[in-house]
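Wait, mind explaining this?

_____
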Amino acid sequence: MPTEGSGRQPTTELDARYSSALNPRPGAADVTATPWDEARRQLEAAEIFWVSTVRPDGRLHVTPVIAAWHEGVLYFSTGPAEQKARNLAHDGHCALTTGRNSLTEGLDLVVEGTARQVADPAVLEEVITAFETKYGPHITSPEGTFHGTGDALRTGEDAVFAVGPDTAYGFGRDDGVYTHTRWTF
């Protein structure tokens, strides 16, 4: 199963066109690219992601999902008959985004890659553990929003998709200092 991202360190590049490097503000004289380790920590901690897929007729489809970063790959799930699953069956290219809703702080992240459905039972168990560890009672408690997810993934009631990043982007904001970082895998 996909472990495309496992152990791979991307090349990191600051895009000065969209960073404070070309439009200096106080405190922005030495703006640098966001390190991949920081972006990865943010991916691990983020609770909500937006997955963007393409319908067979070319129209976009964007919807929120929960996702877990595990061994260099982002995993999310959906029902096999849902629009995003149907879109991915036609074209696996997608993007997952997460971040903050603020003009002055935070790091927005975009991960682009090709989604592949996970079928290996051993990988499914690792992903279930990653979801349960990350989301805790939301998945493990009978009162949790996503209770039963583990069983739904084991039985195939829900499909799990793995997205190993090809390219990722980070849009950082720190009190008026802006960065635009690209990571290429």
About this structure: The mean pLDDT is 91.
